[in-house]
Amino acid sequence: MRLTLLFLLLSVPTSHFIKGAETEQDFTWHLQKLPLIVSQRTFHLDRPKFQAEIKLELNGACGIECQKTLPLPSMSDLEDCLSYETVFENGTRLRTDVNVQGFLPQAESENTTSVKGRLRQKRQVYGTDSRFSISDKQFTTKYPFSTAVKISSGCSGILISPKHVLTAAHCVHDGKDYIKEARKLRVGLLKIRSKGGGKNRKGSKQRKKGSSDAQDPVMDASTLNMKSLNKRSVEGSQNHKGSRRNRGDSRGKPSFQWTRVKKTHIPNGWLKGISKDVALDYDYAVLELKRPQKKKYMDLGISPITQHMPGNRVHFSGFDDDRPGQLVYRFCSVSDESSDLFYQYCDAEPGSSGSGIYVRLRDPRSKKWKRKIVAVYSGHQWVDLNEVQQDFNVAVRITPLKYAQICSWIHGNSADCTHG
């Protein structure tokens, strides 16, 4: 029954979710001039101890309600938070101080409006589980699902270049020290082995690298239809223990190709010495791989307000702990937002933290729909709400400042990061 309802939903064109006076023109990626984040000085720090334990649920984090009570950060505060640490594979650690140029704080605050009329609910997974395990190689090896990666610390991430992965900061650092698993961090890319255990045939055609949607079949809830989505390719939440379907597709079983992480970048805003508390706003990190990958990656995008998302919906895929080895896809509506955070209703379990949250909007030049990453799934977090701890599923939005910072980490300088 649940799958039947999903099939009906997925067969509805994106434009059918446009309401009121909104038109497709509202659902467009807009080119924005970015602030520049310029490195000022770099100096060595002591080697990390790598003694922290990973925590996939954070207590006392500053969420949307907490943010409303805080004064707007000064430029000095922003520069402190956007300065960053880099840890190399050999344990060397650097700090880089930055200078922010061309940034208007009021423009950032105007980039969001509170979503009214919806009540936030306790959320991890309860009631009907709305997640779908992607088990057929027709889907797992195709864009956008193929951009999801597994982090050896137990989290998920997403490819944002041939050799860079975006994930959550708490997947490698607890705010005081790097976690034990970050000492020899690895990233796993989902592969399909043949029934005999070998790799795909050599000489088979490779898709052109890049991040354009134009060359790939549209493979998410925005456009999947009943013909391409079936019980074999996308499983529902029911567990079929011992069944052939639960053991993997007969044409091949999923496995991971693991690659070492060469360096890790974390914003200082995540460090308790800077923020004086765990600040979800800066719960993101970028991992640089030792070897570039041939898989397609997904572009970054500056997070639009939810009214400018078709159906107010977001999408993401990750490797939830309760479904080992399976890629789990979900989509849902955003229930509340600040300039830095989303609260959303996506069912998720530990292990999906660090997943890249994306939306599809129209590219103004090609006129085609294009996916971009607009947030990082921070996970199931406990936040202070009216002096009471409540739990929500939280995502960190990609703001113009964060976009500029992540872009500079990818390119190694800010000169290639002037527009987003």
TrEMBL record:
The gene is PRSS35. PANTHER family: INACTIVE SERINE PROTEASE 35 (PTHR15462:SF17), SERINE PROTEASE (PTHR15462). Residues 191-256 are annotated as: Disordered. GO terms for biological process: proteolysis. InterPro entries: Glutamyl_endopeptidase, Peptidase_S1_PA, Peptidase_S1_PA_chymotrypsin, Trypsin_dom, TRYPSIN_HIS. It is found in: Secreted. This is Inactive serine protease 35. It comes from Microcaecilia unicolor. GO terms for molecular function: serine-type endopeptidase activity. GO terms for cellular component: extracellular region. Residues 192-209 have a biased composition (Basic residues).
